[in-house]
């Protein structure tokens, strides 16, 4: 026996292991041990939720007691806590109760928060406060999740079969696991300046495709819209435009039609290349040297600037004075015609009428003579 002990290999990992008191044979490790778990949630925003929580706490207590969970509302320290009791039979219900008081703290109504105790419903609290640093931009993007009159939020709830509440710096979500994943993606993308309508459109297409059993084993990528993730450069836009024009020309060529031009404008004439650089432009000092201003003294420069300013002011004053004087110029009035002018106009008018009448009578007479001859 001693020889076997000497030859047996020694496990280095258990070299310093000591026997524990619970390693005895009379201890039953399989039997269920009683365990108490307690979760406490401290509310920083208890002030505006205090009145509501006090009113509905009896309903919260009643809902949790049916699952064997005790709850406490401490308004002095501003905290809510849940703990297991001897009547607790579901080990996971304490985590559900913890989620329930989290939702109550985030502004979810009691009737809605109680649904989290169901095994098919899970919750997620998405933090969006640190995604955008600019406050105005953050408010705009958060409002984009809600949409006009809450229409975008309602569409997200219907498509994901979830409950969504946007409150302060967080978004509270309740629903199935897949729906919560979709809502998280939509919310975080919206805070990254991707509009929720793109994801909503994709979810609507997926819902319609799921109704067709033939497409269950096929890829849906050909049906889903492809949105570009970045803005294209000018060269990339031009390349894509040329590709579309080439495809269009191939179709027109197959149909026997003339190809469409690219619509480029005529390029200007190419300049002749010269290895020499262009002439250097004169500096301000050079211009002052040419005009002689450089050699003037400081008081002479000041007088010159003052003279220029005064001349300019006089010109503007003269223009404004002329503009104001236009309002006092009397308009030209036509004098009333004298008696002689009136008579002359009348004679001229009568003479024109007489000539016209004689011409008409001559034409009528000529016409009657032609009729008689025939």
From TrEMBL:
It comes from the Eukaryota. GO terms for biological process: rRNA processing. Its main location: nucleus. Residues 120-192 form the K Homology domain. It is found in: Nucleus, Nucleolus. Residues 1-23, 232-279, 299-374 are annotated as: Disordered. Residues 329-338 have a biased composition (Low complexity). SMART domains: KH. One of its GO terms (cellular component) is small-subunit processome. Keywords: Nucleus, Ribonucleoprotein, Ribosome biogenesis, RNA-binding, rRNA processing. Residues 233-266, 299-326, 348-358 have a biased composition (Basic and acidic residues). InterPro entries: KH_dom, KH_dom_type_1_sf, KRR1-like_KH1, KRR1-like_KH1_euk, KRR1-like_KH2, KRR1-like_KH2_euk, rRNA_assembly_KRR1. GO terms for molecular function: RNA binding. Pfam families: KH_KRR1_1st, KH_KRR1_2nd. The keyword rRNA processing applies. Belongs to the KRR1 family. Required for 40S ribosome biogenesis. Involved in nucleolar processing of pre-18S ribosomal RNA and ribosome assembly. Essential for vegetative growth. Component of the ribosomal small subunit (SSU) processome composed of at least 40 protein subunits and snoRNA U3. Interacts with snoRNA U3. Interacts with MPP10, KRI1 and with ribosomal proteins RPS1A, RPS4A, RPS4B, RPS8A, RPS8B, RPS11A, RPS11B, RPS13, RPS24, RPS25, RPL4A, RPL7B, RPL8, RPL23, RPL25 and RPL28. This is KRR1 small subunit processome component.
